[in-house]
Amino acid sequence: MPKKLILLSRVVLVTIGSVIIVDCAILIAVGKINFGSVVPLLLGIAFVTHGIFWHSVIIFMHQHRWLSYIWYALWIIFSIWLISFGIFIYVLQQQIKQSANPIPEVAAIIVLGSGTVAGKPTPTLAKRLDTAAPLINSQKNALAITSGGMGFGQTHSEANIMASYLHDTYDIPLERIVQEGKSTSTAENLIYSQELLAAKGISLAAPIAIVTSDFHIIRAASIARHQGYLQPIMLASLTPLSIRYNAWFREYFAFVSGWLFKEY
């Protein structure tokens, strides 16, 4: 490989790796320790190490031929993964754009849970509720459902906290909101909401709005269709820029995991 190309490769690896490390370190420092911050951090460290110690790595690989095969295989696997990740992000972007279209008349509006802290919605969940509120207010005849169970040590279900937020922040009457307070996952959010829909005489064939975070809409829509929702209309809330790309990274693996476990 030409020296200039080697130098460029090293600079690119160190630059990208450093950006990833700083980004993930900040998230971890503020308590956001999850797959979307830890795995990219390790990847960033690998990039920086490889860029700085390029020649040592190459020499070591030549001295241990079998390791060089593994090294090349790992780069091939990484390249294939990177392409698939790029495709996922492209499709996600298209779905996010589509969700920004005006919402038609719907029979119900389901707001999916996303966690609470100290009896309050997390910032991500608050964004979902902020996105759902104008639709709930504009479509008075639509059934509004907040969905989320009771976590360990909590005294109120997530659905109850969500309903209280909508009432306190947007003056939406509590009697307008039906609370699904048993679920602990997206799949359960949508399964248990079916019982509430049926109790109100709403068919799964009717148009039903599902409100969730932008990074989550592909997986949520796939789960909904798998469960029999024939017209799920996705409404995406904007993920804060500080965690957006890490959320997309984490969601890619969650989507693959859901496919492997036949959630859709």
Unreliable parts: none
Described by strand count, sense and barrel closure, the largest sheet is: 5 strands, parallel
CATH topology of the largest domain: Rossmann fold
CATH class of the largest domain: Alpha Beta
Give the number of domains. Answer: 2
Structure description:
With 264 residues, the chain is α/β, with parallel strands linked by helices. The protein has 2 domains: 3-98, no CATH class; 103-260, HUPs (Rossmann fold, 3-Layer(aba) Sandwich). The protein has helices at 3-29, 35-52, 54-63, 65-99, 123-138, 158-170, 186-199, 217-226, 241-260; strands at 108-112, 116-117, 120-121, 143-147, 177-180, 207-213, 231-237. Strands 5-4-1-6-7 form a 5-stranded parallel β-sheet. The longest helix is centred in the N-terminal third of the chain and has 35 residues, at 65-99. It is elongated. The mean pLDDT is 90.
Q: Which characteristics define this entry?
A:
264 residues; alpha/beta; Rossmann fold; two-stranded antiparallel ribbon; 9 helices; 12% strand
Topology:
Layout: H1 3-29, H2 35-52, H3 54-63, H4 65-99, E1 108-112, E2 116-117, E3 120-121, H5 123-138, E4 143-147, H6 158-170, E5 177-180, H7 186-199, E6 207-213, H8 217-226, E7 231-237, H9 241-260
Parallel strand pairs: 1-4, 1-6, 4-5, 6-7
Antiparallel strand pairs: 2-3
Helix pairs in contact: 1-2, 2-9, 3-4, 5-6
Short account of what is shown:
With 264 residues, the chain is an alpha/beta fold. The chain contains 9 helices and 7 strands; from the N terminus they run ααααβββαβαβαβαβα. The radius of gyration is 22 Å and the shape is elongated.
